[in-house]
Amino acid sequence: MELTGAQALVKSLEMQGTEVMFGLPGGAILPVYDPILDSPIRHILVRHEQGAGHMAEGYALATGRPGVAMVTSGPGATNIVTPLANAYMDSTPLIVITGQVATASIGTDAFQECDITGVTAGITKHNWLVTDAQDLPRIVAEAFHVATTGRPGPVLIDVPKDVSQSMMQWYWPSSVDDLDLPGYHPSKEVDPLGIAQAATLLAEARRPVLYVGGGVLKAHAHQALRALAEKLNVPVVTTLMARGAFPDSHPQHLGMPGMHGMYTAVTAMQQADLLVSLGARFDDRVTGKVDGFAPHAKVIHVDIDPAEHGKVRRPDLSLVGDAKEVIEALLGATSAPVEGQLDPWWDQLRQWQAQYPLYYDAPQEGQLLKPQSIVEALRDGSPEDTIVASGVGQHQMWASQYWRFNHPYTWINSGGAGTMGFAVPAAIGAKVGRPDRTVWAIDGDGCFQMTAQELVTARTEGIPVKIAILNNAYLGMVRQWQEMFYEERYSEVYLSPDLPNYVLWAEAMGCVGIKVEHPDDVEGAIAKANSINDRPVVLDFRTDASEKVFPMVASGTTNDEIVVHPTQGGRR
Amino acid sequence: MTPEPIERPEADEAHHHVLSVLVENKAGVLSRVAGLFSRRGFNIFSLAVAPTDRSHRFSRITIVVDAASAPLEQVVRQLDKLINVVAISHLNQHEVIERELLLATVVVTDTTSQEVIQLCSVFGAEVVDVGTGELTVVLAGHPDKVDGFEELLGRFVVTELHRTGLVALPKLSRSNAASTFPGSRD
């Protein structure tokens, strides 16, 4: 069967089971947009290419399937660089297809030419410049294979216009053996000797902690994790990337560690004699000052990426492998702890939890809304399996702290890259992947202004996401740092609560917009938003800019120097 | 027990590691390797690359890494994540055949030309081009030998001098010439 390169590309995406792609056409990708008309793949036309990338990420994070985005060359391609960098930091499987100028024009500074494989080499797991249409099915199959196996990540396929226009003889690689990837061997056998050593370390530990990262979700290991934690009666912390991997309602869960983590989660790691890192990477936001991180702990590092072992902290035991396989092997090799062995540890943990719970001061009459209370009201007023997306900043930390994540794949967030503007498009992508779920974006006013135009996409495509803006009229996290570390010298952080007028803006984009200023109106507005399912809803909550995120480990300090809420005593 | 800090040795010119990296011979591979070194903050002391087989499917890159810039284990494991990298060997200093090539153009007079030619014959170098008042000489040998030759050439007026950087292969069948790292495949 003879096909054009463009037809072969779209057919290859179909062969990979692609049900939806996010994109925006342009000159160099034009040939590929023609066969899309005849394809069962749903195409969602975004308003900015960054939106396409983040939607594909949101889709991937909510479904576990790779997200697919397609854009044109030059500025179309560079506009999707941020989502690629974001997906690379968070190991999200993403397939980005870019148009490219015709092969004969490459290197001539042609109209809308950009060396996008060069630009993205450092922020993709791999990328390809296709020079022959005959290679397209094989390269698409390679791209999906690379993006979804081992440590997942984003990939990019750059397709010159003449390649998509030329003819090829259709085929489909029937197995991995038909791929041309001599240097890629992602599967790692679990070392049985290492598992036995890990079981010994766990049996000897008096103050163990399971340090759970995003890799547990990538490996679909949440059930195995729960079984292991319960069998060993070991406390669990879940990083920002792992929220939902272990239920927040579980009594063994200490919550999120790190810069704005729970006091008990942070301090448990500091006092631990054994850290079992499962698909986590000792990120600086978790460790604080590395030299002072978990100083008494032996470390068992479980990660599928060999390069993560010893990158930040030299492990005492290194287990390279898939988190699920390793956890299941540990389940088989370990036995329940000796009766009472962990009692002193649990007593200590319970004492910390009682002493330093999450805390914020109740609002005084006439004050603006407390942002933490909005997250609580959203949580209590929405279905338990609601998917929550967030941007980056204070609202993100409050969302992670005050939501109760009891299901995996319900937290859609930009962790490693810290990409402001992530929430709206990511929520849209998540809703496309999980139309059965309520999807809330908890966003900041600064973030919302970066990517809000994608609500036009959401309304047009019938994707009823809900957005809660915690509108404190500031770039709040930067304001917090300027308050705490720059003597309250507020530099370029004020935004204005009314400009733009968020309600009018929402309505102009075909959404329902509601402004909420009074505590008495919070519950009703959330109930109304949850009842609307034919269009997106934007709630503009006017929140108190003086609220800061606590606990906090200041940059450059150790986790022992954690600062709790001033009412709880502040600096410890 | 305090955790063992990750060793970041002091800068030391003498501490170089030789990595022999088999890569797919595809467009952009060298830039991927070089890009990895720059973005991870690893320093390259020298780098040589050429196809290895007649089909030109693979190339071998010999990289001399400045060991002060990063733990070798991290360099190897990060390199191994590049999809186009097929195999990596760390070549042990004492168990390796190392060669480098030097080309130099030397200004000569009737008297000094004989001295240059004599120096060449001592080192096993060759005169490969002769011009008016100039000679171009070539030496292939162990980097130490090339260093010595270069130093002695410095007594003359050298107008051009190029060194290729190191290429290397493990010594054969006496002991473990190449040590393999977890995650690398060869």
CATH superfamily of the largest domain in chain A: Thiamin diphosphate (ThDP)-binding fold, Pyr/PP domains
- Count of the domains of chain A: 3
Distance between the termini of chain A: 71 Å
Q: If you average the pLDDT of chain B, what whole number results?
A: 85
Overall CATH class of the largest domain in chain A: Alpha Beta
Helical stretch tally of chain B: 4
Oligomer: heterodimer
State the end-to-end CA separation of chain B: 36 Å
Radius of gyration of chain A: 24 Å
| Widest beta sheet: strand line-up of chain B | 2-3-1-4-10
Give the overall shape of chain A.
globular
Provide the residue-averaged pLDDT of chain A: 97
Question: What class do helices, strands and sheet pairing of chain B give?
Answer: alpha+beta
What CATH calls the topology of the largest domain in chain B is Alpha-Beta Plaits
Per DSSP E runs of 2 or more residues, the count of β-strands of chain B stands at 10
The CATH architecture classification of the largest domain in chain B is: 2-Layer Sandwich
Q: Strand share of the residues of chain A?
A: 15-25%
Query: Order of helices and strands of chain B, N to C?
Result: EHEEHEEHEEHEEE
**Which residues of chain B sit in consecutive blocks of at least 5 with pLDDT less than 50?**
7-13, 180-186
